[in-house]
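Let us work through a complete example step by step.
Step 1: write down the sequence.
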Amino acid sequence: MTTERTEPVPRVDPSTTSGEREALEQWLDFHRATLATKCEGLDDAQLRTPTAPPSDLNLLGLVRHMAEVERGWFRNVLAGEKAEWIYSTQEDRDRDIHATEEDTYEEAFATWQAEIAHARALAAPHGLDDLGVGVHRSGESFNLRWIYLHMIEEYARHNGHADLLRERIDGATGD
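Step 2: predict the structure and record it as tokens.
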């Protein structure tokens, strides 16, 4: 099964003149779209393939991981929801990364996009200085600005991984 979709995730360069909030949201969306771009055109087997042993990191796992991260920061920390993990379990906290033959990109992509849509809706009414009503597992509270910055950092780090994984799969390189 290929993962090509009729509507690829658009990747738009962030404005060079936007205000702070708009810039943060544009950079976050840019990095979200970058991860999707790294996965385009590969089949499920390729997306599940860890290409940098001894690490078992794979592109499908990164998409699933970012769905978990979106959920954790926006639903649980910002909104105070008690959303359970999507993929991870107490027995395997890295289950999001540990993709099996039964795990598909179609499901992971849809879940990830749903979490992104929910994150946008939860963030919309808040100002950057607004503290989340939930508490992180560290016991600390975080404002929306910090969450946006952390999410950009999280995606940027994992997009670096995705770039290397993709190049090992089929030689594709790029932004």
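Step 3: interpret the result. The domain at 21-170 is CATH 1.20.120.450 (Four Helix Bundle (Hemerythrin (Met), subunit A)).
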